[in-house]
Amino acid sequence: MSTLRAGLGWIPTVIESARQTAVLLSRRRLFWIAAGVVALLGVCAHVVGGRAAERIDGRSMFCLLTWWLHSTVLLPWTTLFLGVQAVHGRIEDRTFQFLFLRPVGRIPLLLGNWLAVVLAAALAGGAGVVALFAGVATRPERWLPEGLEWRLLAIFLEVSFLAALAYSAVAVFFGAYFRRPLVWSAFFVVGLQMLTANLPVSAGLRRLTITDPLRRLVLDRVEPNQQLARGLWPAERAFNPDMIGAPVQDLVLFTLVCLGLGMWAYSRTEYDSRSRE
Amino acid sequence: MSGQAVAGAISDPHAQPAALLEFGHVTKWYGTIAALMDVSFQVGTEVVGLIGKNGVGKSSLMKLAVGLLRPSQGRILVGGHEAGSRRARAMVGFCPEVDRLYEDLTGLTFVAWMLRYHGWSRREARQRSAEVLDELGLGANMHRPIREYSKGMRQRVRLGQALAHRPRFLLLDEPMTGLDPVARAELTRAIRQLPAQGVGVLVSSHVLHELEAVVDRVVLVHQGCLVADGRVAELRDLLPAQPHRVRVAGPRLRELAGQLVTWSQVQSVTVGEHALEVWLTGAPGFYESLTELGASWPGGLQEIRALDDDLASVFGYLVG
Fold it and tell me: B-chain residues within 8 Å CB-CB of A97?
């Protein structure tokens, strides 16, 4: 005769939730589409490297392509979509019922979801950065006279990872709180971030975005000339390093706030309530 | 499907509190709409049927019991613990009506994943899940992806996740849905065995005659209120305004009808081609008198059968 078990502990629940979510995400079609897009990015970078004006060096080409194509479009959308699927997908299809019946807290379940999305997004994002770098690196004539700058790969891998952390937190919050999280995601990426990109550096609204601290991080790490700086930050005509501030700290703070709000919503919302229908 | 799926469900049946599930003046509001109003009842180690029309609050009541919803007022205890608390959730198994599962997983993996959260190791969880699903009749199909399952197989997986951790209290929302007649009969038998193992069960179903075969008593919910709680026969006796109907078959029907209408318990008699339909003002003493009459009646009485003492009739009388 066996006895009832009290349930998994807090950290094992986070790990188990992350494992299960990662397995479920790996079986989504989007994951394979992302793999195809990564391959396409590499080809695209290689083709652009052969056709762009000669004055654009490999450094600028890689930074501009990676920033504008990867870090501000593909990575945010992929991460937000994966994150919303991981959290809101289960609310929408009501499989969350099976999870909420278990003797474990909702907060570790959500943190597990977040970790899995971070992992998936970081992998996809990192692969994209590597593909872009490989595409541009196969044009050695663009890297003369200094040669290939591996440091840029490391910088954008770091940016990609931090972006995955932050966008996953936003996705988890939106997925837990809103009934239409993808609409809010679109508002966040297209509306809020694009709007704030055109505001002065001092605008407080910039703290509510991910693009802004990420861009400052890129500028800080890459140490661009004025031309590349203009390319990365077109709205700011006279970039100077004093504008950079503490981007990592801002990103971490933003991530923690989003995660906190997500945990608050997830732990107290009655997702099965008829008033939500 | 066998009763062993839930065997060994408890560690010590004698340690059970009297009530495994206790609703105390529970009210649940959805905005300005009251889903449940001041509902109080208890379920011990027995099988209790939850009946009511669609949308009267049955599912809300079940979700409150498992902690998916919180009461607006009142208190719900599971095994003495607040519903929704970790201890209460560890004790409860719930088979929801909603037919959504992780489609890409196999039935075995799905149940094992859920079991992991109860603190079972991966190996134990897979072993136990395979055992439960096998007993529920899923057999080799447990290794196929859920998206390929029939409705009955999906129902078995839902039952499996509710039973695998050996709960002390089981809530089954429409558990017969999708099952074939043989599986229904086996599930009915398995549910009936649960109280003997110290497990309490609250089961809802639209198939009242099947429910009647399983339950010890019923709780009837109508428009958010608990309108009846008791054994079917007791509830029927509490409806004096609804005359009992009894079918009596035998020879010389007209003569028999003439005798019966003189009895004080009989309101009226309808003579049919093969039997009488007798309407009673009250049942006490009627069956005894009829049995005596049958013993002396030339050719004997071939059939005496109550027509409206079943759950469906009681349900119909109570909620129209």
Answer: 68, 94, 96, 98
Q: Which of A1, A94, A274 sits opposite B30 (nearest CB)?
A: A274
Mean pLDDT in residue range B82-110: 93
Query: Are A8 and B116 in contact (CB < 8 Å)?
Result: yes
Q: What is the ipTM of this complex?
A: 0.88
Task: Compute φ and ψ for B74, nearest 5 degrees.
Answer: 90, -175
Contact with chain A for residue B131, Cβ under 8 A: no
pLDDT digits (tens, 9 = 90+) for B164-191: 999 999 999 988 877 788 888 888 888 8
Both tokens assigned to B93: 């198994």
pLDDT (0 to 100) of residue A205: 80
- The pTM for the full model equals 0.84
Specify if A230 maps to a domain: yes
pLDDT given for residue A240 in this prediction: 75
Residue B47's beta-bridge partner residues?
A: B201
| C-beta atoms of A101 and B116 within 8 A | no
Identify whether A16 is part of a domain.
no
- Joined together, the tokens standing for residue A195 give 């709007």
In angstroms, the separation between the Cα of residue A98 and the nearest Cα of chain B is: 7
Q: Which residue of A has its CA nearest to B11?
A: A3
The domain in which residue A201 lies consists of: 22-268
Q: How many structural domains does chain A have?
A: 1
* Closest to B160 in 3D by CA, of B89, B210, B119, B109: B109
**Is there a domain that residue A111 lies in?**
yes
User: Which residue(s) pair with B270 in the sheet?
Assistant: B277
| pLDDT higher at B141 or B206 | B141
Nearest Cα neighbor of A268 from B68, B86, B73, B33 is: B68
Contacts of A7 in chain B (CB under 8 A): 86, 89-90, 117-119
User: Rounded to whole angstroms, how far apart are CA atoms B63 and B57?
Assistant: 10
pLDDT level of residue B107 (50, 70, 90 thresholds): very high
Terminal C-alpha separation, chain A: 43
Whether A194 is in a domain gets the answer: yes
